[in-house]
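Can you make up a protein sequence with its backbone structure tokens?

===
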Amino acid sequence: MANEIDEQLNDKVLAVLTAKSVATCLKVGGTQSWALDPYHAKRCRFAVLCRNLHADWGDGLEPHRTAFMIGRISGVEPSTEGSEGRWLVKFEEYAIVDIPEAWKGWRNPVRYTTFNELGITRKELEAADFKEMPTREPERLTASAAQPNGKMTIAEAKTALAENYGVKPECIEITIRG
């Protein structure tokens, strides 16, 4: 395990400065609404979430710039919050941490970095108690959500299914047999 942790210290990690809480991240399965390069993010094994206490829309309470959560990345999908070009970084496991001043004041809230650059030590990684992410119930699709008359167009169905499964609408094929 020590050798694995030593290797992880220099692995690329995705660091983000977020105002969202652990509870919000657990609810969505990771951290989302990021303008990032999904291919670059997928090459990172971990994401480190650092607190942005200066945003007026957040629900997190840790001190500003403190790393509060580390997630083992399982994938990158379009954000479920509906902003085009924004991404959800999904976690398979997470650990709650308390590492002050991990965020070094970089201007962009997304940074490709290393644990070493963040000042996260071997000892802190060894102490991180990783847990499986809670399973999410898939959202139910209903025709009444699309239009007042209860009917849904093919385009609306593709969009709803794409959001539900984290893919682009053009990846959805619908066959109607009558």
